[in-house]
Every structure is written in C-alpha cells, then in structure tokens.
Amino acid sequence: MVTQNVPGILRSETKSTFLNEDIMLYGRAHSSAPDEILADLTEATAALGWAAEMKIPAEEGAFLSILTAATAPHRAVEIGTFTGYSALCIARGLPAGGQLLSLDISDKWTAIAREYWKRAGVDDRIELRLGPAADTLAALPAEPTFGLAFIDADKPSYQAYYELLVPRMVPGGLILADNVLQYGEIVNEENTSPNVVAIREFNEHVSTDPRVETAMIPLADGLTIARVLP
Fold it and tell me: What angle do CA 202, 53, 121 make, to 5 degrees?
C-alpha cells in the first residue's frame, strides 16, 4: 500500500493507496507531466494546507484532458471546482467553441482557479457559478445538454448530483465520478464513516443503473466512468 507521505510528493498527489508505491511512481513518470502553469497551480494549492488533498493528482488531470479531447463535448459540467486544476485540464481538451460549466460554493478557492484559468488562456471556455450545485443543476433545463460531466464534490451528495445529471446528458455522454475507492476503504466493511458509506451506496446505484454502462478504473482514488445509453 502506498504511504500518504512519499518524499518529495504532495499528499494530494498520492491518492492511489491501492497501488504499490513503485508502480504508482512509475505510472506517473510515464504519463504526460504537468506544464509550468499546472505545476505552479499545484504549488499554490499546496500552500492551502490540509485542503490541498482535494486537488486531483497530475496523472488524473492528464487523463481528463485526453478523454475530453477524445470525446469532444460541446458542453461539459464539473461539480466541485476547488482551485481549478481539473477544470483547467477539461477546458484544454474542449473542441473549438466548447464550454465548461464549473460549479462550486467557495469564492476563496475559486479565486485561485480564475487566476490560473486566465494565465492558461482558457478562462473564456469556463463559466463559474457559485452556490449549491444541486440547486444550480436543478434550475437547468431537464434536456440533453452535456457531453461530459465530472463529479468531485461532497460525497453524500454524489447520488443526487448523478440523478440530476443523467437526464441532462446527451446520448453517449460520459459522467465521471472521482474518489470512488475512498483510499481503499471502500472494501473495508468496518469503515462506516459517512463518506465511505455514501460512496458505497453511490457505486452500487450506478453499477446497477440500466440507463448507463460503467467502468470503474483504479486511477488516483478511483474513477467511475458511466456512459449514458441512447
């Protein structure tokens, strides 16, 4: 099991606790490295202390950019912005004219995001809306709109977000849910913490939902990909 304090690596970058440490580092070394802007954003996020753990690791950011570019969604939505690393990665993968709707409740953390989006030249592709994400989603037209959705927010609300998203996804659209392995605790039946229980219930709900086909991959802290069926 990977320790959470690998020398020289931020805690936010060591989420694959189910991987051997050497394998994790090997995989990271053979993935596209963050550029200067992403590296600087990582450092700015690390300065926040404990909260920095909410940032996705670099290899997951690379995966988001690649997947977004491969699927070329005209519109994407992200629930949980934090300091904007994942939004920046998604925005970089959008096709010409593509837009990302990014939802969060923190003006403080997203102020950092805005700074780095502008520096990266993607601020015109991202619309940030502050407020409870469930309320924002519920107020959107209940019609197919988004080709890609990324959920990385409060775990007890995952299922609610998912249910609000499904009718708003275009046929074949992808819903991505982060942290579905909960640092490996998802298989520890003795762990009944609210987040772990909520994610267990979410995982079961999605995997048995006939509206989607799913794959859970051991990337970072676990990522579920649900493709909305036509």
Answer: 100
